[in-house]
Design a protein that fits this description.
single chain; 2 domains
Length: about 130
């Protein structure tokens, strides 16, 4: 899984911790969203894949995902997978989704990050 900057995001479970593993995972996802490391639209690993990666029972990861979905931190889009949800007020959510669509498009076009950011800055600075 990649973070907002395209780097790898990984979760760590301390099996000797007093905090239950599902809660450790839930907190790490919430913290990742709060810090911006997990941007809206970031695809989460499948429950099974993450369970294998973290050496957890599938039901433990599923419990964390259910709690995160209940709190609107993640959203499941059927067969498409599970993603970090857009957050904030409706205007901010719409802006996050537009930013994600723009990022997807510039990646598809092969536009580098610096050029994409310059295009956004130019568009934002243009008189309306």
């Amino acid at each position: 899984m990649a973070d907002a900057a395209g780097g790898a995001v990984s979760f760590t479970i301390r099996h000797d911790d007093d905090v239950p593993p599902f809660e450790q995972l839930r907190r790490q996802v919430v913290d990742g969203v709060a810090s911006g490391a997990l941007a809206p639209g970031t695809r989460m690993p499948t429950v099974r894949a993450l369970a294998v990666e973290l050496d957890l029972a599938v039901n433990t990861v599923a419990k964390a995902y259910r709690a995160l979905e209940s709190d609107h931190v993640i959203e499941t889009r059927g067969r498409a997978g599970t993603f970090i949800a857009a957050t904030g007020d409706p205007a901010t959510q719409e802006a996050q989704l537009a930013a994600l669509a723009f990022a997807d498009r510039v990646h598809h076009l092969g536009v580098d990050r610096a050029t994409a950011l310059a295009l956004v800055a130019s568009a934002l600075d243009a008189p309306r």
